C-alpha cells in the first residue's frame, strides 16, 4: 500500500501509542463494565431476597391473625393488624378485601417501581375451610433501584481510576521498552525514503540487551547497508543501460540511414526500369525486384520497430492511404510463394469500406505481411484468405475488421498464448522444421496494441487458424481515383464467371457487382452453355465471360474453343483467369479466341483495366490483354497528363541517388539542376529561379537542415520556395526536425517514382489554383 504524504510526517494518524491507549482503554472498560454488572446483579438479588423475606414474614405473622379477626368481624383488631403490616419497611399500601370490596385500606400506591403480593384469607371451622377475603400488600422497589444506581456509580468511578493508573503505567513501560526505539526506527526510515544519507541506527539504552529489538536494529542496519550498495549498483547499471540504449538507438538509426541509401538506388532504378519500354517477361522480372526491395525495406522497418517497442518510443502515424491498394500489395507480394506451395491466396474486401483512410499504412502492412507470411508457411494445402470487413460506420470514422484465414496445421489450445511471445514458436520441432525467429507475431501483437486494438486467435489443431483484429480509421474526403468513364463502360454489362473453386467466386462477385456489372457465377462447367443459351434467347446475352484456366475435367481453353464454334456467341468477350500463368498462355489464348489473360490474385485496378480494354476492343483484335499490357496502356495515358515542365533544384551528395532522382524528374518533363551540398544549393538558389528544391538532409560541408534554415532567413517578404526533404530517417523526430528547419514536406528514402509524382502533382495543383485566383 502506498504511503501518503500525511503518513510520512512526524506524527501518525494511527500511531502505535494511540493504538495501545485505545486497546487498553477499550479492554479495561469492557472488564469494568462486566465487573460492575456482576456486582450489581448480586446486590440486586440480595435486596430482592430481603424484600421477599419481609413479605414472607407478613404471611407467617399476620395472615392467620387477620383471618381470626375477620371471622369474628373484629374491625378494631383488623385495623391494628393492617397498621402493623404497614409499618414494615418498604410497604406502601395494605388493603383488605371481603366479598370483592375493600373494607380496610392503609397507605398509597404508585405506578412505577412497585411489587404487589396477595394472600387469600381462609378460616377453618368444624373441619371446613371458609374463604373470608383477600389481603393485598404493595412493596416499594425504588430503594432497591436507588441502591443499585449509587453502587454502580461508585464501582464505575473506582474501576475507571484503576484503569487510568494501570493504562498510564503500561504506556510508560511500553514507551520505555519499545515506543521510543520504534520512533527512532521510523525517523531513520523517513530519512532514507526522502533520499537523505542515513547513519547506522542504535538503541538509546544504558546497557545493551540481547532481545528482539536489538536483533531487529542490527538486521535493519545490515539491510540498509545492503540496500545502499544495491542502489548504487542499480544506479550505475541504469546509467550504463541508458548509455547502451542511446548507443543502440544511434546505431540503429545510422544503420537505417546507411541501408536506405543503397536501397534508394535499387528502388529508384527499378521504378525507372518499370516505366521504360520492356516486354512482358522483363516487366515481370523488374516487378519481382521491386517487390523484393520493398520487402527488404519492411524488414528494416521491422528491426527499427522492435528497437522502438523495447525503448517505448513507438509512435503511430496518421496519414492518408488506400486500404485497397495496401491489401492488394500485400497479396501480390506473397502470391509467388503461395503458388510455389500450390495454395490459393485470396483477398476479399467489403465494398462498403472507403477507398482512402487515415492511419499508419506501414504498420498495418507489416502486421498483414507477418500474418499472411505465417499462414503460407504453416499451410501445406488449401487456401489462405485475407478478408476485410466494415464492422461499424461512425461519423468520419470506420471500424475495419481484418481476418486472415488458413487451412494449415493449426494450433492447439495449450500453445495459443505462446505464439505471441518473442523468439518463440509452438515447439522446438516447429522451429527446426519451419525456420524463423519467432519474432513476427510478437511484433504484430505490439503494433496492433499500439493502434488501440487486440489481436485474436481461433485455431484447432490440423484444421487451420483464424487471426483477427479491428482498427478504427478516420475517413477522408479524398474520392476514389477511378475514371468515371471506366466505370460507366461496365455499368449494366452482364458477366458470367465460371470457376470450380467456390472461394474464387465469393471473392470476384462483390467486386464486379460494386462496379455496376450484372454478375452470374457457376462452379459447374456443364451449366455454361445452358446459361449462355438462356440469356441469348431472352435477348440479354452475356457481354463477358470469365473462365478459370484449370477446372476438373475441362480447361478454359477447351471451353473458349467450343464457344467460338457457335456463331450465336461471336460477340462474347472471354478473359481467362489463372493462378499459375505460363509464358505459353498468351499464344494459347490467341488460338482459342480469348481476349484477356488475368493472373490471380490480381489488384482491383488491374482487373478493372483488363476488363475495360477487353470490352472496348473489337472481338477480331488478336491482342491478348494482360495486367502488363493494360498497365502500359494506362500509364501512357497518365504520362500525357504528367507533363509538369518545372525547374527543380536537386540537392544530393550521393552520385547514384543523383542519377535516379534526375531521371525520375526528367521523365515528368522537369529541368533538373544538381548540387552536392547545402552551400552550393544556397548559391544556386540565389542566382536561379526554381519551382521546387528537393533537399537531402545529411551531406558534407553543410547539411540540408542548415541549408533550409538559411534559405528561409534570406527569402524576401512574400517569397516562399517549396523545399521537400529527402531523408533516410524513418523516426518521427527526424521528420519533425525537417519541418522545424523550414521544409514544407518530406520524402522517405528510398525514393520512388510515385512519391515524386505525388509531390509534383500537389505543387502543380496549388500553382494552378493560385493562377486561377489571380486571374479572377
Description:
The protein is of the alpha/beta class and 776 residues long. Helix content is 52%, strand content 19%. It contains 22 helices and 23 strands. Strands 5, 6, 7, 8, 9, 10 and 11 form a seven-stranded mixed β-sheet that branches. It has a five-stranded parallel β-sheet with strand order 13-12-14-17-18, sandwiched between helices. A five-stranded parallel β-sheet has the order 20-19-21-22-23, with helices on both faces. The chain is elongated and about 160 Å long.
- Which class do the helix and strand fractions yield? alpha/beta
Give me the Rg, rounded.
Answer: 51 Å
The helix content is: 40-55%
Q: What best-fitting shape do the alpha-carbon axes yield?
A: elongated
State the major sheet. 7 strands, mixed
Brief write-up:
The protein has 776 residues and is of the alpha/beta class.
